[in-house]
Amino acid sequence: MTIRVVLAEDNFLLRAGTAALLDALDGVELVAATADRDELMAAVEEHRPDVVITDIRMPPEHHIEGLTAATEIRARYRGDPAYPVR
Asked: On the CB side of 27, how many CA atoms lie within 13 Å of its CA?
């Protein structure tokens, strides 16, 4: 079984390093690495990952964009039989 992951991190070095670590894991497929909330939301819509790893503070305001994105993802896909969010 392969776990499909979307990563969201605005810092390039952290995003690249985390992506490299995830790519090296057996059973993990990094389907997207994004830099901000809008990219994260688009990647989730496109790839429907099993897991989202997100930074809390991301552009544009560097406040709680990652948390609000996670909340929105959960609400948006809840009840979708093709994307069972728990």
From this structure: 1
